[in-house]
Amino acid sequence: MEHRIIVNPTLKIKEKLKTHSVQGDKIFHFSGLGSPAGVILLFMENGNEKPGYLPLAIGPLRIWPPVVLSPMAGVTNAAFRSLCAEFGAGLFVGEMVHARLLVEGDPYTVSLARFAPDEAVRSIQLYGTDPGEVAAAVRLLVAEHRVDHVDLNFGCPVRKVLKKGGGAALLLNLPLFARIVRAAVRAAGAVPVTVKFRMGVDAQRLTYLEAGQIAVAEGVAAITLHARTAEQLYSGNARWEAIARLKERVRDVPIIGNGDVRTADDALLLMRKTGCDGVGIGRGVLGRPWLFQQLSEAFNGLPVSSDPEMTGVVAVIKRHLRVECQYRPQAQVLRNFRKHLKWYLDNFAIPTAWWQRLFQADTLAELIATLNHLANTFGSHPNLHSRPFSIAGNESVEE
Ligand SMILES: Cc1cc2nc3c(=O)[nH]c(=O)nc-3n(C[C@H](O)[C@H](O)[C@H](O)COP(=O)(O)O)c2cc1C
Q: Which residue's alpha carbon is at the smallest distance from atom 16 of ligand 1?
């Protein structure tokens, strides 16, 4: 396959190209690092130009397409990860677990660290502020939970966590940040450790570039940047230009860009605009696990399928419920599932009475009967795609 590279003129980095030229069949010269910031790989196939993307390389893992289900507390459990993986490939990061509670054997925390029996890559996110505790938790995850990847959380914007010096506050204490990362990398052995952080605690204290360099020096295998400050929580637009800046600064490990990717087109655009090596997606998948199919299609150069209509969405909800029930009792599934129902069905104009029936279902059978009735009534109702990002209780989202 022939290929050539073009420069994204808006990023004004033409000189840098000289050190990154790709020739002949040496396209994998970039292996694991993707293209330098602002450079788009173009493959020529049968005389047609196609944007080219490389698998995301995290240590020994090769992720294709280069998409990551962002860890989301209360969402990215084994059931949700399995459901997403049924639609398309990627890296599916498990929800955050607290290092100390895991080491102490807290039953709820241990239950969060469960994996599906057939999960291809066992990936999990860890939160901790003490290097010793983090190292102990990593050793446990590697030895007993047989994880293939550990991500460290330095992005939590919740005020009470910040007050204790945890989450994004560690971006203000870079010596401690370095010690935590070092402890985790050493404890993980051959298992790759990655970090996920925001740009800083607030606009006056943007420390992500320095944090990125420190993380690389301590041996991380990749960095995810959620391009907002902790102060912003989820407001405003993600500052994708910060992702490009981090990519320019940090050359040695892949950069995963994160923030406001809702569609497969957004994912391609983020890669093209910033030169990042992979895309992390959080809220865009809530109630839309089929986005992973659309991402696979887009990255493989295929036409992207449309979002399902009501009947299709109801079929996915029922599948999701069945998978959830493999992990916990029905009553617990029903309680936790309300938020998912809201996310799945928000895009449809459903009369209020239907919401009440859905939320008040006492048993799984009753909920499924209501869903079937809903599908029969609204059948081919189109999915409106127009839902703006909104998550109930943003403030309390544990990140
Ligand atoms: C409900 C919810 C829970 C989240 N929990 C975590 C978490 O535990 N760890 C983390 O690093 N980020 C967490 N996040 C942040 C996401 O991983 C992601 O960085 C953020 O939502 C921005 O990406 P998006 O615009 O694609 O949603 C959470 C986000 C949401 C909406």
A: 282
